Amino acid sequence: MILVTGATGNVGRELTALLPEARTLTRGSGADLAEPETLTPALQTVDTVFLIWPFLTADGAEATLGKIAQHARRVVYLSSSAVRFGPDTDPITRLHSDLEAAVHASGLEWTILRADTFASNALGWAGQLRAGDIVRGPDSAATAVIDPADIAAVAVRLLTDPQPGTTHTVTGPEVLSRADQVAILGTALGRHLTFEPTPFAEARAQLTADGRPPALVEALIGSAERRPRSDLVTTTVQELTGRPARTFRVWADRNAAAFS
Ligand SMILES: NC(=O)c1ccc[n+]([C@@H]2O[C@H](COP(=O)([O-])OP(=O)(O)OC[C@H]3O[C@@H](n4cnc5c(N)ncnc54)[C@H](OP(=O)(O)O)[C@@H]3O)[C@@H](O)[C@H]2O)c1
Fold it and tell me: pLDDT value at position 209?
């Protein structure tokens, strides 16, 4: 039995579609990853857990992994390819770096799946693009954004064909800036779209004024501000699924309805 956490999220939705026989962990049924005792019913008879950690720090991860280890034998953890830049890069790389260490120390048989920036982060532009043709926001370094469906397809392979003690980095097929992504999205939507970068100080002040907690603001802006450009393009999707990673254009075509 496989248990999928984050089953309603970008990756989890795709994963449960590919693995309909897997059990899902949902907050709706009272299970909370931050409260290990609530996980007991979902963990009954589970052998392998697909784990996401939807928080801003690793606080509590050790206890949650301990609870998982009481029931399951294996874990596949969804991490970030930015971990390779070092834990001090920004709060999100710190989080995933700490989680990888906790997974290694958990006593579970582990596999780490490090993903590049999700193509689905572009859904955050939907509100602006329903109102006009300009996307404003903090710029971030170019990187090979990946379709969550490809992350899910690789996860299926790692969940069903165990590769214990290994770390896999998945990226999309091409390195894209935010301006590139906005332009490609425009082509998919049949519109001329442009990206206007907002200075980090302005974006930070705006998010804070909107009432977001300081830790969330720092996580959002910190990663945009401090992550270096990444030219990393891996062949992991091809190797583990037998077909190449999908382009951002394919993701945009599939998700066009969300922007109009
Ligand atoms: N976005 C990126 O570019 C990127 C890149 C690399 C790695 N990642 C990592 O990928 C992971 C998954 O991202 P995603 O985009 O697939 O997820 P997502 O769309 O952000 O959804 C979060 C999921 O976590 C669940 N969740 C939230 N709080 C929970 C709690 N307290 N207990 C149990 N479940 C809870 C949510 O369930 P509900 O339906 O109950 O809300 C939802 O299913 C994250 O850890 C993220 O850091 C993201």
Answer: 94
Protein residue with least CA distance to atom 22, ligand 1: 9
CB of 115 sitting under 6 A from ligand 1: yes
> Domains in the chain: how many in total?
1
Whether ligand 1 lies within 6 angstroms of the CB of 153 is answered as no
**Which one of 3, 15, 23, 27 would you pick to mutate in the ligand 1 pocket, going by the greatest count of ligand atoms within 8 A of its CB?**
27
Count of CB atoms within 10 A of residue 259's CB? 20
Mean pLDDT, range 90-114, rounded to an integer: 98
Distance in Å, CA 234 to ligand 1 centroid? 23
Domain housing 247 = 2-259
pLDDT in tens, 203-239: 999 999 999 999 999 999 999 999 999 999 999 999 9
Q: Say which CATH number the domain at 52 has.
A: 3.40.50.720
Query: pLDDT digits over 131-159, tens only?
Result: 999 999 999 999 999 999 999 999 999 99
User: DSSP class of residue 146?
Assistant: B
According to DSSP H, which parts of the chain are helical? Answer: 10-18, 40-43, 61-71, 91-104, 126-131, 148-160, 178-189, 200-209, 214-226, 236-241, 248-254
Q: Is 229 in the pocket of ligand 1 (CB under 6 A)?
A: no
